[in-house]
């Protein structure tokens, strides 16, 4: 393995701000008020940057999540406000911020994202989503439209945003004190886009950033999602429970890019990962058991459904019986069922089966740092992904643990860079230069 | 004069970021790239806070300003991004940010502004404007609607935003680690507003700030503007060239508040002020002459029009002749004409007449700090305003000069506080507590 071989790209998920586990806010040492506390997010961003993580990923919701009632915090208070604050406390790490194409006007998001790209010196990325949550739509007096409409608008919005980003010529900002010429307006051009869903005249009054303009990410696949990934995305935020599934998703994104005239290598596929780290497997499980002490019993019936067994909350502290294990059938409705059964067969109590993260949103390697590194290496070398977006269980110490214990192993194995190779997110991703629309994929919007 | 007597409230205008003079970006010591440089804005915010200025005022435009072509920079790159960065570098000063009701969805601005209010610990205010610029409308594929429509929407948007701000009960955020209750959703209520122009279901997932919710400002008067000022505003950003005009504007805002069932003292009227400070009048004029060295000749014909005289750029360095002074008639189309004539009669060259700021957007007291303080005292004691929004000519040194030289005189005279009296913008303004809609002025939107 040489240093010129392909290396993985890593994102760190800030999630709710507390971490990816529902009870992260209740973990020891965590300030339960961190939801509104930028200082906490600054600590997490700095920890990730210390580990030369390529980008922070911030999800977003445009509605209160019903899980708040069950004690599970909302995503970040506001990703733009958060990133604007984090920008000044970091200098190399990128920021990938989720924002909807459905309930934003292109001029407004083009402006805020470009402002963030310029003030972060080219470290900004936009994860463009279409939003399928009816509660979000209701906050805008709307209902969720069918995919053809949502994605029709998404294409127009992304194209308008990219056109606006490119409306200020690369050399337009003369700011020449002697001549008194602040801007050469001959190099600043309106975009004059008018589609079926949106219109914007432009120009945007913002010069290029060190990376030209923000990079685009997308999340989710499917026929429609792939039209976004294929045309615009430099990164795809993925979710897969098996190497096979991840490979299929990655291949689909790469094929979509090819279909739109791009080089498939321009689209990096990121697999989700929720590592549970301890110096031993038992210590890792103890960490998670402690976190879920109260909530674990409530999840037992769902685990039962995954295994085709009628399990009750009271049974949480016993292993499955031989008879139950013989009867168990992994359910087809949940892709995590097979792994749940494998863990159950190892003889763990139900609480420990749950502590293995078998009903987490992403795969959960459990144990010492090398287990996590092995897992990542296997996926990466199998072509399942170009890197990972890592969701620590509890941000307060989970980012440090990943950075201090997993990252060095990945580096030792030549799988991850020793240091940032560039200063912009585009460089971190190896994404080609782009300013304004990509002529290879641009088609007149209606 | 005792310390319990009424004191003025002061705002500092960040303007383009460079200062209020078109050539501020070309002044000595100014980095011409400050437009995209948050560090420069941080310095200015800290300087203003050192002077215990009550708030920073950030204007906004939703289009590129044509004056960019003449070397005059745009307003701030993005006020939300800027304030999010400044928030962490200051602890007491408030932020009043201009945002349009016409091209924003209430949920989006309610969220970002409340996020800023929470993360600044209650120091945020929204200057709600309706935007009359056709270029802004074109950036949203629209044209500027008539006032009844723009202001009809403005009322709905402001009410929806205030309702969303109040949707999370004051005690709702339990964040109790022991019980695992993060939020008491019984205290979080949808707002379910549906008007003629906008609708929003809510709730907003953000707890109250230290001041409950942001305060509202408005800018501009007129029949329609006063309906905004009267119902919602804690502060009015004014523009007046004479004490009489300012008193009339202030009285109109106070009467409007009274009409909507509020105490007139709840609406503070801020007069605009563009001080030109030097240790002598001559030194102050020299500062301005230097700043406008190249551009002054271009303004001569306009000065001529104000005085009813055919003046040419080449004449910039001579005073008006006796014959011209005898012929001069202040023009009725520009309220600044009378003062321009008064200055001309003092025998200054045309360049020095212009250097007196006679065609600036706000009155320009010229000379040593006590001249500025005298001016402010006279207006304040005449009931022309409750305070000022001060526009330094060049932010880089103008804020320091005002803070170090004018503020101490105002304090000595008991006209301005010795230190911040509270921690929130609401406290700085003496605005009453408000959370959610004001029941005194709330009427069902349609
Ligand atoms: C891994 C992953 C992360 C996502 N993150 C977000 C998010 O933070 N906010 C959001 O509104 N949607 C998010 N989405 C939702 C997708 O953008 C998309 O709306 C969703 O998958 C529904 O698909 P559809 O729009 O094709 O119906 C995410 C999807 C995936 C797969
Ligand atoms: C002192 C002052 C400052 C203003 N600042 C802004 C601003 O920063 N951005 C903006 O869009 N409008 C601003 N306005 C414009 C007003 O909100 C209003 O749109 C304008 O006066 C036109 O009036 P109309 O909307 O009643 O036609 C300002 C007005 C005044 C008087």
Automatic annotation (TrEMBL), chains A, B:
InterPro entries: Diverse_substr_monoxygenases, Luciferase-like_dom, Luciferase-like_sf, NTA_MOA. The keyword Flavoprotein applies. It comes from the Bacteria. Keywords: Flavoprotein, FMN, Monooxygenase, Oxidoreductase. It holds the Pfam family Bac_luciferase. The keyword Flavoprotein applies. Residues 30-383 form the Luciferase-like domain. Signal peptide: none annotated. Belongs to the NtaA/SnaA/DszA monooxygenase family. This is LLM class flavin-dependent oxidoreductase.
